[in-house]
Amino acid sequence: MASGYDLILKGGTAVTPMGIAQTDIAVSEGRIARIGDLGSSDAAEIFDASGLHLLPGVIDTQVHFREPGLEHKEDLASGTAAAALGGVVAIFEMPNTKPSTLTTDDLEDKFERAAGRAWVDHAFFVGAAEENAQKLGVLERHPGCSGVKIFMGSSTGSLLVEDDEAIRKVLRNGTRRVAVHAEDEKRLRERFALVRDGAEPAMHPVWRDEETALRATQRLIALARETGRRAHVLHITTAEEVPLLAANKDLITMEVTPQHLTLAAPDCYERLGTYAQMNPPIREARHREALWDAVRQGIVDVVGSDHAPHTAEEKAADYPATPSGMPGVQTLLPLLLDHMAAGRLTLERLVDLTSAGAQRIYGIAGKGRLAVGYDADITVVDLKARREITRDWLAAKCGWSPFEGITVTGWPIATIIRGHTVMRDGSLLGEPLGQRVRFVETLG
Questions:
Q1: Considering the entire predicted model, what is its pTM?
Q2: 118: left (phi over 0), alpha (psi -120 to 50) or beta
Q3: Residues 407, 411, 413, 415: is their CA dihedral positive or negative?
Q4: How far apart are CA 309 and CA 305, in angstroms?
Q5: CA separation (Å) from 76 to 311, 323, 420?
Q6: Distance from C-alpha of 299 to C-alpha of 295, rounded to nearest angstrom
Q7: What are the tens digits of pLDDT across the range 297-352?
Q8: In what side-by-side order are the strands of the sheet with 58-63?
Q9: Are 307 and 333 in contact (CB under 8 A)?
Q10: pLDDT by residue (tens digit) across 390-420?
Q11: How far apart (Å, rounded) are the C-alpha atoms in residues 252 and 246?
């Protein structure tokens, strides 16, 4: 009998660097201690994983949990609860709260709020703004900071960094990869007349057209080349951006969301109205197919949910006075598992998009793979389970999802974070134990 194991997962099919195989995984002191046939080895806890798949813990690198300042939409407790219920072990949260996350004090305020309330591990972005541009090189290295976020369009106050000189200044201050919302603010303002006096929600991708996204991405790539700064373009939506990003993989990485891989205009606007409204918009099916081709070709680096909840009351206003965004952290993995069941991606590719890709892009320390010495972050799934996404399962404060009523194949059964089972069979267990995510470039 081996001693010192805190947890053994027995007989699951694990996705490891050596391939996919039925095996056991032993955990000691929060880290993976052994992978292989553990025979009669004992542990404080035995998890029978027979018939289940063991994935590296899913990491969602783009969420908006709204705290501080907008807690009526979401907060760190409810957002991380939704993450854990969806099989997510860690989240990166965005800076467009109230106040915006612009300083060390702002970052520490979020970590203090998360202490004892966050169900999953977490990191926070610092927002790029005119007033902190010179300090970003220091701010991005704060423990638990996931990096700098640039809003080229669709933000408010000083978080909007729209002109080339301001973006250039941000890119020159710091070395870590920056995350970017790439929409051209000048074109958005020019085209707002199309919807200003009221319009159907289906006009959203007409106002915020393909050219709006393409121009911003083109500008970002040119500025990244000029400054030698790595960048990660969030929520890509257009067929036109894909070849441009493919041609610049040495410097630029790319995210897509489950929403843009699943929904398409005009159907989504006809069915969901403003509940389908997000930035950049859900577009026609040809764009969705281009994104899937980018997944197959290996151009997409990561999938993030862009979880951005608003209340039903806020969404019920008349467009365009309605806020853009939808919840998604809890449904990210079920939707991808369903796409996998439909043959749109392999299990290996799913793992790459939800854990290994995040580790690679952001330099996460100790997460992103099932390997000895890594954090024992394990997402346990049943690939054959057929479940309906129902309102009573959702934990987000906003209380709705655009995917309610959809039956998916594949479901998260357990969420294990640093060896602790925080979710099993749809229930949260114990107390919130989330900690700061560690990054290679900020250690020591």
A1: 0.98
A2: beta
A3: negative
A4: 11
A5: 16, 20, 19
A6: 6
A7: 999 999 999 999 999 999 999 999 999 999 999 999 999 999 999 999 999 999 99
A8: 58-63, 88-93, 121-127, 145-151, 178-181, 231-233, 252-256, 302-303
A9: no
A10: 999 999 999 999 999 999 999 999 999 999 9
A11: 9
Alpha carbon of residue 217 to chain centroid? 20
- Residue 211, pLDDT > 50, answer yes
Query: What token pair was written down for 243?
Result: 């070849």
Task: Pull the structure tokens for residue 106.
Answer: 């702002």
Catalytic position from the list 301, 306, 375, 377: 306
Distance CA 230, CA 224 (A): 6
Cβ neighbours, 10 Å, residue 388: 11
Q: What does the angle CA 236 – CA 239 – CA 240 come to, to the nearest 5 degrees?
A: 95
Q: Name beta bridge partners: 375.
A: 31
Tell me: domain 58-362, CATH 3.90.550.10, correct? no
Q: Tokens for 212?
A: 């709006």
Q: Are 167 and 143 in contact (CB under 8 A)?
A: no
Is 10 exposed, middle or buried, given 0-12, 13-18 or 19+ CB atoms closer than 10 A? middle
CA dist., res. 24 & res. 294, Å (int): 34
Specify the amino acid at residue 113.
Answer: R
Query: Is the separation of the CB atoms in 15 and 349 below 8 Å?
Result: no
CA-wise closest residue to 148 among 168, 176, 183: 176
**The two three-digit tokens of residue 70, written as one number:** 């907008």
**How far is Cα 291 from Cα 336, in angstroms, rounded to an integer?**
14
Concerning whether 306 is annotated as a catalytic residue, the answer is yes
Structure tokens at 289: 């197919």
